[in-house]
Amino acid sequence: MIVAKDVDKIYPNGCHALKEVSLTVNRGEVVVVVGPSGSGKSTFLRTLNQLETTSGGSIRIDGVCLQDPKTDINQIRAEVGMVFQSFNLFPHKTALENVMLAPMKVLKKSRDEAEQKGKELMLKVGLSERMHSFPSQLSGGQQQRVAIARALAMMPMIMLFDEPTSALDPEMVGEVLDVMQSLAKEGMTMVVVTHEMGFAREVADRVVFMEDGELVVEDTPENFFNNPTNTRLKKFLGQVL
């Protein structure tokens, strides 16, 4: 589903953010990426839908090479949903209208069709009773769940999550992780950058550790957390667990 090979990212100022990162994510897998701040996690995630261009290497999504000039990147982005730290909801539209917008504009769905799907997704994320609320009337956790519903409305093949709970108060983190866990159980292919080690331990098929732009360790959650052999990973886990 996702095949990243020797991905490099060097910024114009010379910062080498990604150093030959290679990772394969199979259909239906949940891969969680962890590591210290500034390790390249979010940069790598953003290369998977080319919000961040690469300086070298290649990325294939469902067999399509993102570096090929003939590839329609907007088509890829329509099939690869992304949820960010900030919710980026339109403040003048209700939760349901936020979810309906992209299917109508991009997928050319009728208003009735988009509304029906939107209502189903609001139920899915546990917010059917708040669908007519405006973002300012919702908690941070509720807004992030609307953002997840909005991404799902495009019927993506893959979901990318870039630290989706980092901007939330601690008591709101669980409600967002619960939605993500239910998506994983339904077989959604997911790549998740997070600091939530409990989520990584419980939900991931594989956990990846990045540091200094390198993919250092890739292992099952059991081995990753219970039997780490890499010195850099041991130090990291000692700081966060």
From TrEMBL:
The keyword Transport applies. Residues 2-237 form the ABC transporter domain. GO terms for cellular component: plasma membrane. GO terms for molecular function: ABC-type amino acid transporter activity; ATP binding; ATP hydrolysis activity. Coiled coil: none annotated. Its main location: membrane. It is a peripheral membrane protein. It comes from the Bacteria. SMART domains: AAA. The keyword Transport applies. It is found in: Cell inner membrane. It holds the Pfam family ABC_tran. Keywords: Amino-acid transport, ATP-binding, Nucleotide-binding, Transport. Belongs to the ABC transporter superfamily. This is Amino acid ABC transporter ATP-binding protein. It comes from Motiliproteus coralliicola. The lineage of its organism: Bacteria, Pseudomonadati, Pseudomonadota, Gammaproteobacteria, Oceanospirillales.
